[in-house]
């Protein structure tokens, strides 16, 4: 899949500080390949503290997990005002599935159904090719392959 020259990209990866660190090469590679891209990252508090001010991330949408249903409503309202060209659904948990479904984008990319959990594959209309389970960073780097963005350096 080739990205437009100035793509609006949403990255759905809410929690797990380690996963957020493993996803940083993805946003860096996208910005390196498409400097005019606009990257919005959906995060929870812990991950947001790591990403705040990062030069490759244009916007953070903070999901308030502890707010329960009100957190989903708030996020739905924020997402309704932000159209995206593509959503990269890196996290296959139910809350990420719901937020991916709420994103306004013609293309939503996630893991193949065999590797996705909690019905995550239902929120996506494109899936990475089926592969064996590997380290989380390898899964994340597959999104770059899908977008035809070089992984290196």
Tell me what you see in this structure.
This protein is an alpha/beta fold and 153 residues long. The mean pLDDT is 91. Helix 4 links the parallel strand 4 and strand 5. Helices cover 37% and strands 16% of the residues. The longest helix has 17 residues, at 17-33. Helix 1 (17-33) crosses helix 2 (45-51) and helix 1 packs parallel to helix 5 (136-146). The chain has a six-stranded parallel β-sheet with strand order 3-2-1-4-5-6.
List keywords for this structure.
5 helices; globular; six-stranded parallel beta sheet; alpha/beta; 6 strands; 153 residues
Order of helices and strands: EHEHEHEHEEH
Widest beta sheet: strand line-up? 3-2-1-4-5-6
Q: In one word, what is the shape? A: globular
| Largest sheet entry | 6 strands, parallel
Count of beta strands: 6
Report the radius of gyration as a whole number of Å.
14 Å
Structure, briefly:
This protein is α/β, with parallel strands linked by helices and 153 residues long.
Helices and strands in order, then pairings?
Elements: E1 8-12, H1 17-33, E2 38-43, H2 45-51, E3 59-62, H3 69-80, E4 86-89, H4 94-102, E5 107-110, E6 126-127, H5 136-146
Parallel strand pairs: 1-2, 1-4, 2-3, 4-5, 5-6
Helix pairs in contact: 1-2, 1-5
